[in-house]
Amino acid sequence: MTSTTILNPIVIENVIQSKMRGKVTYQSYMSASIALNLTYVKPYDHPSGKGYQRPVDASRCSDFAMYLSKGSDSLFTPILINAGGNWEFSSYDKQRPSLGRLVCKAKASLMDGQHRIGGIQQYIQETQSEINIPFLSFHYLDEDEEIQLFDTINTKAKGIGSSLSKYLRRDTDDVSWIATELLIRRESPFYEKGSIIGKRSKGRHITLQNLYRTVNLLTSRISTLQKQEKLIAAIEYYSALQANFPNEWADYKGSKLTHIVCIDAFSIAGSHLVAKSLTENKRHIDIKVIKQYVSKIKNKIDWSADGRLKYVKGMSGSKQLAVELREFMEPENKDQ
Predict the structure, then answer these.
(1) At what angle do helices 58-68 and 114-127 cross, to 10 degrees?
(2) Which residues touch 153 (CB under 8 Å, ≥6 apart)?
(3) Dist CA 191 CA 208 (whole Å)
(4) The pLDDT of residue 48
(5) Pfam families from the xrefs (predicted)?
């Protein structure tokens, strides 16, 4: 059984005492070395029968250690702990009753932050450095309350989703920016057809994550271009599809054309076409060339949802369809 005792009390200064739903809490920070000695984990197979933590995932710890190596931009949230009544608070003076110090006489149970602590431990060992760890501690939760809170944190909370994540990275990642612009620009054929937050609804059947992947496919051979030029290529290419198949583009239910499996297929095939449409200086896209390529596929394929494309699914289906599309749009390179 994990020992919760420490040789000598540890003092933490500049602590704010408050209450949450009637429970006394403490907020402050402590050094990583202190945190490693002052917290412990209750594994799910704890002899008391009151354990709940999963085994630590070493790869997640390593990922967090790598994140910390980015420097001052690598911010992180406080760890959540339960002092179990073993930490005593005393205020500095009567004028500031909620600000004071904690005298920690035993280890606290780590409820949330196991992989952050693991990553921090790896980071300080590799860099021979020290960092401060913010924390929020409950003065006392009984074992059942602790388990219930852990369960709530890990089952009720939901991640932001990959689409919203891409949106939040649009200022630092070119593909995220292009995908976002395709959804919000009026001149884009995807305008009002997609969801930034990843929630599909009537008329909005394409997510930002879908577009992120398909833009990656389309621009894979023009990676040296500025993002604005890549956006132009994407808008013009997909607009050419819309212009050649206006009815199919508008009919998601009856046509497979705007299903992501087919959009991805067009993007895979289109990656060759947009690369060939570069002007002589290799800095701009020749829009006329793109339109000429796309026009060659008109009336070549049945896009109906109940037609032969009905069972085309997944990336493997996209790749197979892309071969056929390229044969129509670029017959001179049929065997390439």
Answers:
(1) 60
(2) 80, 111, 112
(3) 12
(4) 83
(5) DndB
